[in-house]
Design goal:
Layout (H helix, E strand, L loop, with lengths): L4 E7 L5 E7 L2 E6 L2 E5 L4 H13 L7 E5 L5 H9 L4 E5 L3 H8 L15 E4 L3 H7 L2 E6 L19 H9 L1 E11 L4 H9 L3 E8 L8 E8 L10
Parallel strand pairs: 5-6, 5-8, 6-7, 8-9
Antiparallel strand pairs: 1-2, 2-3, 3-4, 9-11, 10-11
Helix pairs in contact: 1-2
The structure holds S-adenosylmethionine.
The site of S-adenosylmethionine has 24 residues, from strand 4 and helix 2.
Amino acid sequence: MKPLETVGYVTTRDGHDLTLYHRDDDYQIRLNGLELMTSRAHGSEEAMGVLAREAIPHVPVPRVLIGGLGMGFTLRAALDAFDGAEIVVAEVFPEVVTWNRGPLAHLAGHPLDDPRVHVEETDVTHLLEKESFDAILLDVDNGPTAFTLESNGDLYTAAGIEHLAAALTPGGALVVWSTDEAPNFERRLHNAGLEVRREDVPACGRDGGPLHTLYLAKLAVIGETSCT
Ligand SMILES: C[S@@+](CC[C@H](N)C(=O)[O-])C[C@H]1O[C@@H](n2cnc3c(N)ncnc32)[C@H](O)[C@@H]1O
C-alpha cells in the first residue's frame, strides 16, 4: 500500500497536532493521530442534511447551523436539501476551513463557494449562546461519548442539551451524529422534553457499510394544541 502523504500540518492553539493526509482518492484529517474525518465514508454525514430538511417542512427559508465543517459533506447535503436557506458553519480549527478552500474543496463540490454559506471559525458553543436556528446539525465528535475536544463533552449533558434546545426556533430540529447508539444521551434528550427519533444509517450510503447513528430531536411548536 502507498504511504500516506502529508498535505498539511499544524499545531493548534491548544497544542493539538492537526494533520491532513492524502493517499490515492482518500483524504484523512487526524487530530493527535486519531481520525477526525475520512473521505472514504460520508453517507451518514450526508443523511443529516436530508433528515433536517424533512424535519422542518414548515420553514420555507430556514436558518441552519452546522457544527463542524470536516470535509464539507454535511454542508453539501444541507445545501442540496434546502433550496433557500442561510447556512452557518462553525468550525473550531481555522486550518480545516483553509483546507476546505484548497485541497479538500472538490470532495463535496466546493460548498464553501455557495453564497448561502457563512463560515465562523469558532467553537460551535459560542454561536449557540447568541443566535437562533431552525435546524442544528451537530457532528463535532465521534458521538456523545467520544470527544474531539474534552470541552465538547458539555454539549451532550442535560445542560448542554438545554443550550442546544434554547438555540432552536419553535418547531426546530436538532440532528446529532454518533458512531453508534448512545442510550444515555437519547434518554437525556427525552428528559429535556424533546421528541426524539433514532436513525441507523449506513456509513457508505447506498453501498452499505457499518451503521452510524443519527439522533433527530424536535422542539414542540409553541401554542400547538391537540384535540383528541
Ligand atoms: C467528524 S468532522 C465533521 C464531518 C462533517 N460532518 C463532514 O461532512 O465532513 C468534525 C469536525 O468538527 C470540528 N469540531 C470539533 N469540535 C468543534 C467545536 N466545538 N466547534 C466547532 N467545530 C468543532 C472538527 O475540527 C472537525 O472539522
